[in-house]
Fold:
Amino acid sequence: MNNARSRARRLAMQGLYEWQVSGNDPRDVLVHLHETQDLANIDREYLSELMLKVPDHIADLDTCITPLLSRPLDEVDPVELAILRLAAYELSLRLDIPYRVVINEAIELAKKFGAEDGHKFINGVLDKLAVQLRQAEIRAKSR
Structure:
């Protein structure tokens, strides 16, 4: 696990949460993160990618996530929604990152920032999403 990338995911999740709640432009949220957070030992390029590309792909990401949810998208906790969107982006568009890494990182974020059993919800949704998006990778791992 790349700690600089894990820290970038954590900050991106916080930034995506802020974007979802405030409706501010993702670029402004990214600038705010740069101004207010310690970015030492953070993969800044990856932070920028997540903060700008997740909102760009939000309709597709939500379309992937929504059928897997046990409740309407607008009833998902905003922290958990930010985590799901971030992980859905990685599962669908960052095939260089192993699906197990994506899921594990999302679970860790949910344990730290989500509701009490939020990590179980995140795990359930992302397991199903990985089966849809990473079929070949999952089959290769099971051999």
Q: What stands out?
A: The helical segments are 3-22, 26-36, 44-56, 58-65, 78-93, 99-113, 118-133, 135-141.
